[in-house]
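Human:
Focus on the backbone:
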Amino acid sequence: MKTEYKIFGIVTAFLFVACGVYWWWSAQEFNGKPDMVGVIALGLTGLLTLMCGGYFWFVSRRIDPRPEDRDDSEIADGAGEIGFFSPGSYYPFGIAVASVIAGLGLVYKAWWLIALGLIAVLFTTAGLLFEYYTGARKAH
C-alpha cells in the first residue's frame, strides 16, 4: 500500500498547486476576480485524493508489506490466489442499469425516477452482497 499512498500524495500535491496557479491565473484574466468554479473543483478534487491517500497510508501502517512494497521481492512472491470473483453474476449489470435510471432522474429532475433508481441500486447491491448466502448459489 506504500506505492498507492505515494502516488496519491503526488497527485494531491499537483492538484493543490494547480488550484493555486488556476486561482492566480484566472484572477489575472478576469480583472481580479478568479473563476471560483474551477478553483473549488480543483480544491475538492485535491481533498478527495488526499482522503484516498490518507486511507492507503493508514492501511499500509497496519499490514505487512506486500511484494509490491518491498525492494528485495521477486516476481514469484506475488504469485498465488488473489481472491474470489463471482464468475457468472448479473448483479453488476443490474447495479449499472439502476445507476443509469437514477442518473436520468437527475438529468430530467424527475424525483420519482431518482427514487426508483436509488431503490433499485440498493436492492441490486444487496443482491450482489448476499448472492452466495441465499438461492441456488448458496454455499452448503
Remarks:
- The two ends are 35 Å apart (CA to CA).
